[in-house]
UniProtKB/TrEMBL annotation:
In the C-terminal section; belongs to the GTP cyclohydrolase II family. In the N-terminal section; belongs to the DHBP synthase family. This is 3,4-dihydroxy-2-butanone 4-phosphate synthase. It holds the Pfam family DHBP_synthase. Residues 46-188 form the GTP cyclohydrolase II domain. It catalyses: D-ribulose 5-phosphate = (2S)-2-hydroxy-3-oxobutyl phosphate + formate + H(+). It comes from Salipiger bermudensis (strain DSM 26914 / JCM 13377 / KCTC 12554 / HTCC2601) (Pelagibaca bermudensis). InterPro entries: DHBP_synth_RibB-like_a/b_dom, DHBP_synthase_RibB, GTP_cyclohydro_II, RibA-like_sf. Its EC number is 4.1.99.12. One of its GO terms (molecular function) is 3,4-dihydroxy-2-butanone-4-phosphate synthase activity. It is an enzyme of class 4 (lyase). One of its GO terms (biological process) is riboflavin biosynthetic process.
Length: 194
C-alpha cells in the first residue's frame, strides 16, 4: 500500500523493493518459472474419432496431474507454422451444456465451435472438465477458475500453438499471463460466424 492508502502499482513496488533490498517478481515471472519446472498436464491417450460435428478429429485426452481430471482436445488440420489457429476453450458446465439452463443459445456453443473449426479445416476445441464442481443452478456452476486457465494454457502450449484466434460468444476476454506460455491472442471470432 502507498502511504495514502492506495494500492501500490509496479513503479511504486520497484522503488520499495530497491529501498529495502528486495527482489520483485510478476505473475508472468511466476508462470514462466512454473512452465519451466512444473508440468501439470500430460497426454494419456490419442486417437482419431469421428463426430457428427465435423467428421474426423484428432482427439487427445489430457490428465491434470494434480486433480486427476481428464480434459478432451479435438483438433483438425496442420497446427504447425506461424499462422494463427482457431481455438475454443470450453469449460464444461453440465447445467448449461446438457440441461440448457443458461442464456438462450448457449447450450450449443461446444458443438457450434466444432462446426466452425471443421469448416475452417484447422483448429482446436478444448473441453476442460472439473469433476469436483458442484451442480447448483441457482448459483451457477461454471468452472471458470484460474487453475483451469493455467491448465488450458499448458495444453495449448504442448500442442505447439503460439498465435490464437479465440472462438467465443463473450465480450473480448481478458486473459493474463498467456505470454509466459508463449501464447498470444491475436483476435476473436464469434462462434457461428463464417
Amino acid at each position: 500500500m502507498n502511504e495514502d492508502g492506495s494500492m501500490s502499482r509496479l513503479p511504486e513496488l520497484v522503488a520499495f523493493a530497491q529501498k529495502h533490498g528486495l527482489k520483485i517478481g510478476t505473475i508472468s515471472d511466476l508462470i514462466a518459472y512454473r512452465r519451466r519446472h512444473d508440468n501439470l498436464v500430460r497426454v494419456e491417450r490419442s486417437q482419431t474419432v469421428s463426430s457428427e460435428f465435423g467428421g474426423e478429429w484428432d482427439m487427445r485426452i489430457y490428465s491434470d496431474t494434480t486433480h486427476g481430471d481428464e480434459h478432451i482436445v479435438l483438433s483438425k488440420g496442420d497446427l504447425s507454422g506461424d499462422a494463427p489457429v482457431l481455438v475454443r476453450m470450453h469449460a464444461l458446465d453440465p447445467m448449461l451444456d446438457i440441461a440448457g439452463t443458461g442464456h438462450s443459445g448457449r447450450a450449443d456453443e461446444f458443438r457450434d465451435a466444432m462446426t466452425v473449426v471443421a469448416e475452417e479445416g484447422r483448429g482446436v476445441v478444448v473441453l476442460l472438465r472439473d469433476t469436483a464442481m458442484k451442480l447448483d443452478p441457482e448459483e451457477g456452476s461454471s468452472p471458470k477458475t484460474l487453475r483451469q486457465y493455467g491448465l488450458g494454457a499448458q495444453i495449448l502450449s504442448s500442442l505447439g500453438l503460439s498465435k490464437l484466434v479465440l472462438l467465443t460468444n463473450s465480450p473480448t476476454p481478458k486473459v493474463v499471463g498467456l505470454d509466459a506460455y508463449g501464447l498470444e491472442i491475436v483476435g476473436t471470432r464469434k462462434i457461428g460466424d463464417a
